Amino acid sequence: MKIGEIWSQLGSIMASIMFVYAMFDKFFPPHLRRYFLKYTNKFSTLFYPYIQIKFHELSGEKLKHSETYKTIQTYLSANSSQSARRLKAEVIKDSQNPLVLSMDDNQEIVDEFNGIKVWWSANHTTSKSQSFSFFPTSDEKRFLTLTFHKRNRDVITTSYIQHVLEEGKAITTKNRQLKLYTNNPSKEWMRYMSTKWSHTSFEHPACFETLAMEPEKKEEIINDLLKFKEGKEYYTKVGKAWKRGYLLFGPPGTGKSTMISAIANFMNYDVYDLELTVVKDNNELKRLLIETSNKSIIVIEDIDCSLNLTGQRKMKKENDDDENEEKKKLVDKAKGEEKNESKLTLSGLLNFIDGIWSACGAERIIIFTTNFVDKLDPALIRRGRMDKHIEMSYCSYEAFKVLARNYLDVESHDELFPVIGKLLEDTNMTPADVAENLMPKSITEDFETCLKKLIQSLEEAKKKLEEEEAKKKTEEKVEEARLKEEKDKQKIAQEEENVKANENSKENDKENGLIH
Ligand SMILES: Nc1ncnc2c1ncn2[C@@H]1O[C@H](COP(=O)(O)OP(=O)(O)OP(=O)(O)O)[C@@H](O)[C@H]1O
Ligand SMILES: [Mg+2]
């Protein structure tokens, strides 16, 4: 018989005694009751070498649902679905696995930690509500009981419980359905909602395995993310806010947005897609920031197009050395606007990134994307703000191999892969275009047809590029010839002028009698 069962039977005996005790409550004088309790307790502790800890479902004065109870339940559910005989099924909101199985009441499961055995059981007590109500409810109290030998008290109360809570939290985070938040109110009524963000579930399937880019570069990003995720102590030690900024830049279709989704899935973070063009002023930006949660990614796509932030910054700089009255007036105006926070400004955005931003949250990543990195104000993308600059480039051979595996399940092809590799070197094709060519358009298209289709596209692209280069060269030559002609003309004109000037001077000399 299991330890838990033995002691649950002993418990029933004790309960029967207590019942008898309760029945005769009225007839026992109080001092006899005290003796009875004292000796029954002594009796049980003498022979009972186990310690029990109860974790109640409802806790605190207001009987709120206990987070600890939920976390332990999550930890146990992984174990109980295999070992408990009677299970309870629950549907959990916002979870990737909405159906959660946990052990049913009075079931018991065994867990092991560093070679120590412990027993968990799910229990409940029911007592009828004494107070009058139109909707009588039975007062049911649920709790989980942890039983362990008293010789293991220290390990269990310090390390084991900590381990259970950490594991439970990790499982909750892993199973959490990610959310995609946006501040772009698509519906008019949303403008009047108290919260500035609306959300939907984030279900983008992108991941690092399917992201096409050079393996070393990918590895470097993954390592950077892992270091960030596990960097709580490090960031505290160096006195830096636990945040990291990434700048993704490159031509359209090179995978910047796909990379953001891959990062979100890898880190298990929610995504806040911040649309700056609809943010009224700096105050609204602050409010939006305060409403974001930890473990999240704040994304500003196409930062170069979002606002004319560069202009304002430049105006401010120019003021330092330029005395021009007109400019000064403009700068004062911009400063006034910043002061009143009546507009969204570059300094507002910089504050968003490293001012109050640092103080009101942890474990957050901010990502900017742009097609034109040179257009951005250096202040916006300097290290410390945007810690890592990642260039998303045209499709390389290594990136193509990832796409071929994703789209065609092909790892290599002796004949066609080298041709594609060579053509990719000679052209600038984005991973988006390569992917489009590789995608079978009908069930009759096999992988070789798709690879040949890509080769054809690459050859066309190469031809186009060569034609463009040839055209450019011809134009350059024409321009060169035009310049040469102009120069020659100028030279001839100059020479003619010189001859004329010479003749004039000779004539003058003749008139003056210097030449006979
Ligand atoms: N590096 C890549 N790896 C895998 N797929 C990619 C990659 N780049 C592009 N793609 C494919 O091309 C599509 C477009 O890519 P994506 O939207 O990520 O490009 P982008 O760089 O964000 O472009 P834009 O600058 O126009 O926003 C994606 O849906 C994806 O299927
Ligand atoms: Mg994009």
From TrEMBL:
GO molecular function: ATP binding; ATP hydrolysis activity
Keyword Cell cycle listed: no
Record field: transmembrane: 6-24
InterPro entries: AAA+_ATPase, AAA_N_dom, At3g28540-like_C, ATPase_AAA_core, ATPase_AAA_CS, Mitochondrial_chaperone_BCS1, P-loop_NTPase
Entry annotated with the keyword Membrane: yes
UniProt keywords, alphabetically: ATP-binding, Hydrolase, Magnesium, Membrane, Nucleotide-binding, Transmembrane, Transmembrane helix
Basic and acidic residues biased stretches: 325-334
Catalytic activity: ATP + H2O = ADP + phosphate + H(+)
An example Gene Ontology biological process: response to stress
Domain (AAA+ ATPase) ranges: 242-396
Protein family per UniProt: Belongs to the AAA ATPase family. BCS1 subfamily.
Protein's name in the database: AAA+ ATPase domain-containing protein
